[in-house]
Specification:
The structure holds two protein chains of two kinds.
Chain A: H1 2-29, E1 33-39, H2 44-59, E2 63-69, H3 73-85, E3 92-96, H4 100-106, E4 109-110, H5 112-116, E5 121-122, E6 125-126, H6 134-140, E7 141-142, E8 145-146, E9 149-154, E10 156-161, H7 162-167, H8 177-188, E11 196-199, H9 204-213, H10 220-224, H11 237-251, H12 264-272, E12 276-282, H13 286-295, E13 300-304, E14 319-326, H14 331-344, H15 347-357, H16 364-372, H17 375-378, H18 383-390, H19 396-399, H20 406-423, H21 427-446
Helix pairs in contact in A: 12-13, 15-16, 20-21
Chain B: H1 4-27, H2 32-54, H3 65-97, H4 114-142, E1 145-147, E2 154-156, H5 160-163, H6 169-201, H7 207-215, H8 222-232, H9 239-246, H10 261-286, H11 290-298, H12 303-314, H13 316-333, H14 335-341, H15 353-363, H16 367-392
Helix pairs in contact in B: 1-2, 1-3, 2-3, 6-10, 6-13, 8-10, 8-14, 10-13, 11-12, 13-16, 15-16
Classes of the chains: A alpha+beta, B mainly alpha.
Chain lengths: 450, 400
């Protein structure tokens, strides 16, 4: 008897406990949906994103957006791979532009267009892709579909030390390669000439920009956008022209090479301390460089990236990264992620992001807002990149290439340029060899997906 | 699927094993039949060690000659794994047969229960299996794949990742660079360390303090060493060019000149490891018997002669030990220094094998190639160590 009573009591207790647990679980479901956002910044850009997330959470209490920072684009890619394998994926990941093809092949992500469906607004935030500036829309539109959400798009521009240019009798910063050379001749002839005339990081991005400017494609199948690219054109005439000019600038002692690949810091350092008269680097550094130079009593003016006068200027392509939506998220989380991405890119936020960093204001309405505030008049250095991108003609070349092996191709290009500068050699021959190497890497990558 | 080659290879391998071990057994006047069966099994199964996981892909008709040659090598290595111990055992048995006593005395077990010993070893073994053997074996698996970090798809590529290295000019150049840089680190590093240790060993006041100061750099991580030298050899603001300027030598582009950069790496690596070497040399010097030195001094040998004829040979066991540890250091540990000092540049002039693996595995994310390269590097270091044990140890005198 006694045992039976005990048993009943225990059973009743269990029923009550599980009821309570269900009730508790139900109330947990009412708590805000967690939206995890991973970005590849650790500096003030991460702080800004976190501030924005807090603001968003206040406006939309049904969501809890948290922003995590990673060291660089490569690191975030690997962290994502691991997280997906361990079923601990974030909701939104910032992915660099040359990884676009990989993002598609890996199959971790859902296209923004897919996630939106027919909706024209999410939680009252309007979806207005027509407002995005054209080069950004065209880069991230794949097979006619908006795939990832643009965020930090940049463009390379020329930073010039007006003091040195004036001393050399140059009124306006050079616009073409040929003008750069002529200006350098004058600058290096100055009695108190700087240590070098011009510098830019040895990074594939600049090479790609010069290809686009000459309206030259990097790969077949319309730069990999009509179908998977299978062949590269690093040995093409425009490509060899870039290598030859770059090498000749180095040979004449005009171009300063720090000796390290992808050395963004050395370029920034050189221009803001007056070590060189000119530098080409990302518009995303406009704020940093202008301010740091001011502290050294140096006036910096920015102009468009110089182009090859012989082939003319078609346009520049965008750089930077975009936000990708991870697939198979619970509906609530997915809506939260979409809302946050749309909100982060609304007119005011896009304008503010531009002001804080120098990244492009990616909405037409943001540009208008900034104009109406007189921002560009007060900060002309920030206008250059927008002006350059908005005047670009959208062609196959300026939309940018999609390659599965893009990061490795960049490595091949930077290595080839380094060899050309440090050990000399024939640019045409070096580029032919680079092309062979890059084609092999591309074939290897493609063999996994054919 | 059993093709002709899947039968032929183990059969041939078994035959070789059978004849070899069988004849050995005959020599020992034991049953040649038993020997032939044992040898046949060992050879046949041994040939499968690498070939079964690879599914004999190296002998497929569409493969080229290099792959086939590589395959034969793998079969031979596989055969050696079981045949080696077997032949070793027959040699011992043969010696016993000739009446020679086994010279190794049997040690008495301390643990009465066999399982108790294993129980105590279990934690260590678990950790070794989980963190050393399993990842090690997984490296072999990865090395046969075309696979990128995180890419969900992989493709089996047989031994292409290995044979591809033979025609990879960057890789072949990297081998030369690795040996040159490592040799310089070992030779100059040990010579310099011995010199400084000898000086530091002189009995003067406050010796303890400056001996500690000499060992100090060893406590710095390779990465920090890289940063320190990066700043020192910076062409614009570095102290190296400033000092050269004082004696009227023009600025040198230490880090962007392919001929100079390796020397900066060598210098930084030696500086970083010197404390360790000095520590061992001072300890060695303290243990040297004084009477030999005194006797030589009485015979009229000068300090330099005594150093060369007595100190250096007596320190040979320590030198031998340091050569091995410095070699491991030069092959594996200078990665951090290189990454922050030159990042393998300029023009790949400081891209040693371990850095090459990092570039391919981490930067490009090509795991298969990186796995193959790390296996090759591992085998190289094992091989070098074995060669050194065989050749150098004969000249090492351990007696005091």
């Amino acid at each position: 008897m006694n045992t039976r009573r005990t048993f009943l009591a225990v059973a009743a207790g269990l029923v009550a406990a599980s009821g309570a647990a269900f009730w508790a679980a139900d109330s947990f479901a009412q708590s805000p949906a967690d939206v995890k956002v991973w970005i590849a910044f650790t500096d003030n850009r991460l702080d800004w994103a976190r501030e924005k997330a807090a603001e968003f959470n206040k406006q939309f209490p049904q969501y809890n957006v948290t922003v995590e920072g990673y060291g660089n684009y490569e690191e975030i890619q690997q962290a994502t791979d691991l997280a997906i394998q361990q079923n601990a994926a974030p909701s939104v990941v910032q992915w660099f532009e040359v990884g676009t093809q990989r993002a598609r092949d890996f199959g971790y992500f859902k296209s923004i267009a897919d996630a939106l469906g027919e909706r024209t607004e999410v939680n009252g935030i309007p979806v207005n892709f027509d407002d995005f500036i054209q080069p950004v829309v065209s880069y991230y539109t794949l097979e006619g579909e908006f795939t990832s959400m643009p965020w930090n798009s940049s463009s390379p521009i020329l930073y010039s030390n007006t003091g040195i240019l004036e001393k050399a009798g140059i009124d306006t910063p050079p616009a073409t390669w040929q003008e750069v050379e002529a200006a350098c001749e004058k600058i290096m002839a100055l009695p108190d000439a700087p240590q070098g005339c011009i510098t830019w990081p040895n990074h594939g991005w600049f090479y790609e920009q010069w290809m686009a400017q000459q309206n030259a494609v990097l790969a077949n199948n319309e730069n990999g956008r009509a179908a998977r690219a299978t062949e590269l054109f690093l040995d093409s005439e425009p490509s060899v022209a870039i290598a030859s000019w770059w090498q000749s600038m180095e040979d004449k002692g005009y171009y300063v090479y720090s000796g390290r690949q992808r050395d963004w810091a050395a370029t920034e350092q050189a221009i803001q301390t007056g070590t060189v008269a000119m530098a080409i680097t990302s518009s995303a550094d406009a704020a940093n460089i202008t301010n740091a130079a001011k502290e050294n009593n140096i006036d910096i003016v920015t102009t468009r990236m110089p182009y090859n006068a012989e082939t003319g200027w078609t346009g520049n392509l965008i750089g930077g990264a975009s936000l990708w939506l991870v697939k198979d998220l619970p509906t609530e989380v997915e809506d939260g992620a979409l809302s946050f991405m749309l909100w982060l890119n609304n007119t005011e936020n896009a304008a503010e992001w531009h002001q804080v960093t120098g990244y492009l204001p990616i909405r037409e309405s943001s540009v208008e807002l900034l104009e109406s505030q007189g921002w560009f008049e007060e900060n002309p250095n920030f206008y250059t990149a927008s002006d350059q991108i908005n005047n670009s003609t959208v062609t196959t070349a300026t939309r940018g290439a999609l390659l599965g092996s893009f990061p490795q191709t960049r490595d091949v290009i930077t290595q080839t340029m380094e060899n050309l500068m440090l050990q000399g050699g024939d640019p045409a021959q070096a580029m032919a060899q680079a092309n062979q190497q890059a084609n092999q890497l591309l074939a290897e990558y493609n063999s996994l997906y054919n | 699927m059993l093709g002709l080659i899947q039968i032929l290879v183990p059969l041939l391998a078994g035959l070789i094993g059978a004849v070899w071990v069988g004849s050995r057994f005959r020599l020992m006047q034991r049953s040649g039949m038993v020997g032939a069966i044992l040898g046949g099994l060992a050879g046949g199964l041994g040939s499968l060690i690498f070939m079964a996981p690879l599914d004999f892909c190296t002998f497929e008709p569409e493969r080229n000659l290099i792959d086939a040659v590589f395959g034969v090598g793998l079969v031979l290595v596989g055969m050696a794994i079981p045949l080696g111990p077997l032949l070793g055992w027959t040699r011992q048995a043969y010696h016993r047969h000739l009446g020679m006593k086994n010279t190794v005395p049997q040690q008495k077990g301390i643990f009465k229960q066999w399982w108790l010993a294993w129980l105590f070893l279990l934690p260590t073994l678990t950790i070794l299996v989980l963190f050393l053997y399993y990842p090690g074996l997984d490296t072999f698996r990865l090395s046969t794949l075309l696979t990128f970090v995180g890419a969900p798809r992989t493709r089996f590529v047989c031994v292409d990742n290995f044979t591809g290295l033979l025609t990879d000019s960057t890789y072949l150049r990297s081998i030369g660079i690795t040996f040159a840089i490592s040799a310089a680190i070992i030779i100059f590093g040990l010579a310099g360390s011995l010199l400084i240790a000898t000086l530091a060993y002189q009995p003067i006041r406050g010796a303890a303090i400056y001996r500690i100061l000499l060992i100090w750099p060893y406590a710095i991580s390779p990465a920090v060493a890289g940063i320190i030298f990066f700043i020192m050899f910076n062409p614009l603001g570095g102290v190296a060019n400033y000092l050269l300027g004082l004696v009227g030598i023009p600025r040198l582009n230490w880090l962007s000149d392919p001929n100079l950069a390796p020397w900066v790496v060598i210098f930084a690596s030696i500086w970083k490891q010197m404390g360790y070497n000095i520590l061992f040399y001072i300890a060695g010097l303290q243990n040297l018997p004084k009477d030999l030195q005194e006797a030589a001094a009485i015979d009229g040998a000068g300090a330099f002669r005594r150093f060369l004829a007595i100190t250096v040979p007596l320190l040979s066991p320590i030198t031998f030990f340091l050569v091995i540890t410095n070699m491991t250091y030069a092959f594996f540990d200078i990665f951090g220094t290189i990454d922050l000092l030159t990042a393998g540049g300029p023009s790949g002039s400081t891209s040693v094998l371990i850095y090459e693996i990092y570039k391919i595995g981490v930067s490009s994310g090509n795991l298969g190639k990186a796995a193959a390269q790390s296996i090759v590097l591992f085998l190289m270091v094992v091989g070098l160590t074995l060669i050194q044990f065989r050749t150098t140890e004969r000249n090492v005198t351990y007696g005091g």
